[in-house]
Specification:
It catalyses: a uridine in mRNA = a pseudouridine in mRNA; a uridine in tRNA = a pseudouridine in tRNA; uridine(55) in tRNA = pseudouridine(55) in tRNA. Its EC number is 5.4.99.25. It is found in: Cytoplasm, Cytosol; Nucleus. One of its GO terms (biological process) is mRNA processing. By secondary structure, this protein is of the alpha+beta class. The chain folds into two domains: 2-86 and 224-273, no CATH class; 89-222, Pseudouridine synthase (2-Layer Sandwich), CATH 3.30.2350. It has eight helices and 15 strands. Strands 1, 4, 5, 6, 9, 12, 13, 14 and 15 form a nine-stranded mixed sheet that branches. Strand 2 (47-48) and strand 3 (51-52) form a beta hairpin. The chain is elongated and about 65 Å long. The two termini are 13 Å apart.
Amino acid sequence: MAGDSAVRLLALSGLFPVYKPKGPTSAQVVAQLKGSLLKEAGLKEYVKKRKQTLKIGHGGTLDSSASGVLVIGIGDGTKMLSTMLAGSKKYTTVGELGKATDTLDASGTVTEEKPYDHITKEDLEGALKLFTGNIMQVPPLFSALKRDGKRLSCLLRDGAEVEAKPARPVTVYQLSLRDFQPPVFTLDVECGGGFYVRSLVNDLGKALKSCASVKELVRTKQGPFTLEDHTLKEEDWNISRIAQALQEYGPLLPAEPGNKRLKKENADNTVGSGE
């Protein structure tokens, strides 16, 4: 049975989403998933000259303090992850006015506190218009962006001095206020690749002549995958369930070169598994 499971695992190819809980990093979630699948298949990890027993990765870092959709590429599906990095994403975030932190969210140290009593719901809704469309945004210092091969967040935690990356163009397709109970507010955001919700909330606080930071962040959609309808939770991280997901979700992916072949392989592998 272990041999059959190994064959089925190594034949998997495509994209599927998992639920990333609050706490672990995206890389840790991928490592946990990979470890579970290798254990089920009776395989050991093997890495030599960039060749791995099982090719698996994610399509866009989700902050450790955030939860939600994390798109996984397996087998040749890892070659398709770039489409997830550049594609549309949706988030729901809870921000807090009057408080700024070094990480721009609740995981960091408070660096500034300002009054927020002057801010009305109308003020907040008006400010959102400034951050809709094609805008320029400065990424957070605490981020997965790299300098000299090391993540900025790691450099900062090691005590190194880090300069902010220059502002870069990003796209916000939709931005709306769901709830406003001062100092807390809830936003729904749909954006393109390279966008940071933490920077948005920080910039929003400044635009309102106060400050703000993220209390909670949930990625509700990435590409065609939604949190409610598609994500696999930890109890579903097994070969059979992932094979089923690849077959079900394959038609959701854009018909780009290579995708048709991957969809056919996934369908053939699932049918042939006897599950």
